[in-house]
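Translate structure to sequence.
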């Protein structure tokens, strides 16, 4: 799948590094669409995975304005969240050091 994505966005198909899978990782990403089908009437539009993937990539490339601002907002939230965690960790380390010294 990654090679198809890299090809579709004009990147080197070998431009990635393999990492070892974690046990059970595939199950975590499995999707059960039965509830979508049953409750919302959703149906598959593509049976050919690669064709659907190419169409999805083309849609995102043609609709950058739609997702670009959302992406920026999400990344800003992650940055703040990461800083908050860093501050909490450093406060915890300082309190542990002062407890040990006191």
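Result:
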């Amino acid at each position: 799948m990654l090679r198809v994505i890299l090809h579709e966005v004009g990147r080197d198909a070998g431009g990635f590094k393999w990492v070892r899978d974690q046990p059970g990782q595939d199950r975590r990403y499995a999707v059960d669409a039965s509830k979508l089908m049953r409750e919302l009437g959703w149906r598959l539009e593509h049976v050919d995975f690669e064709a659907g993937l190419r169409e999805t990539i083309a849609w995102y490339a043609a609709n950058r304005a739609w997702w670009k601002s959302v992406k920026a907002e999400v990344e800003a939230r992650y940055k703040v969240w990461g800083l908050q965690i860093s501050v909490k960790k450093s406060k915890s380390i300082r309190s542990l050091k002062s407890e040990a010294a006191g």
